[in-house]
Design goal:
The protein is mostly helical. The protein has helices spanning 2-22, 24-54, 62-71, 73-86. The protein contains 4 helices and no strands. The protein is elongated.
């Protein structure tokens, strides 16, 4: 029973994704989101590279990448400030 439910979920999600990708504006939105996520990951990786000199580390996980993806460099500074203040 569980396999059938998961199979239907995967099939319906695939069909929805197929219908979304066929729309002309959705591809642009998906690519924009992808670029933001990649830039955020590189910014956080840059902070990790500098941690040898600064002894300051921010974890690279879905929450930090999401925050920096949405807010950009101010989000990175916000996360750094929160870490300094709260930890």
């Amino acid at each position: 029973m569980k396999t059938a439910v998961w199979g239907m979920l995967a099939l319906s999600a695939g069909a929805l994704l197929f219908l979304l990708v066929r729309q002309p504006g959705v591809r642009k939105i998906f690519s924009s989101i992808g670029v933001h996520v990649v830039v955020a990951a590189f910014l956080l990786y840059g902070v990790q590279l500098a941690s040898g000199y600064t002894r300051f580390e921010l974890p690279i996980n879905i929450y930090t990448v999401g925050t920096v993806s949405v807010l950009g460099v101010p989000g990175l500074m916000l996360l750094a400030l929160l870490k300094v203040v709260l930890v």
